[in-house]
Q: What sequence folds into this?
């Protein structure tokens, strides 16, 4: 004979087992979901950290390249400025040398002009002295000739 409560007790046991299984499955699912969420969060955090690190590295590289370009440009500007200063210094030296050369030429020309003036004065004085001497000699000679002619005429006329 059958126990009328047998199936009822069995049903209760089955229901309790099913409840335990369902609870275990739900707990496992919750754990799996939590693990998945944690893994996703960790992956997202890792990706974000990697992206941030890459962005920082790229930014540093770009800033370094910009600094390099600016430094190169600054070096070029410094070179241009140095060349400009050298050109200006050379131009100033050339101008100073040219001015000094002109001054030297002017001094030399002054000396030459003074020497020429002195030589001309000496030549003029010498020529004047020579002319005076020649004139004096000519006058003396003419006087002597005149005296000789007068003496001869006097002698010719007086002793004739």
A:
């Amino acid at each position: 004979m059958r126990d009328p409560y047998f199936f009822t007790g069995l049903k209760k046991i089955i229901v309790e087992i099913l409840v335990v299984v369902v609870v275990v499955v739900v707990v496992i699912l919750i754990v799996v979901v939590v693990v998945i969420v944690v893994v996703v969060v960790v992956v997202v955090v890792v990706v974000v950290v990697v992206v941030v690190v890459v962005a920082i590295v790229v930014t540093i590289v770009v800033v370094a390249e910009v600094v390099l370009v600016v430094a190169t440009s600054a070096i070029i500007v410094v070179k241009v400025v140095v060349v400009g200063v050298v050109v200006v210094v050379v131009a100033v030296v050339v101008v100073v040398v040219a001015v000094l050369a002109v001054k030297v030429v002017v001094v030399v020309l002054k000396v030459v002009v003074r020497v020429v003036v002195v030589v001309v004065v000496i030549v003029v004085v010498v020529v004047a002295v020579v002319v005076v001497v020649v004139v004096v000699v000519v006058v003396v000679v003419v006087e002597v000739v005149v005296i000789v002619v007068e003496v001869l005429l006097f002698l010719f006329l007086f002793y004739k």
User: Anything to note?
Assistant: The two ends are 232 Å apart (CA to CA). The CA atoms of residues 12 and 18 lie 10 Å apart.
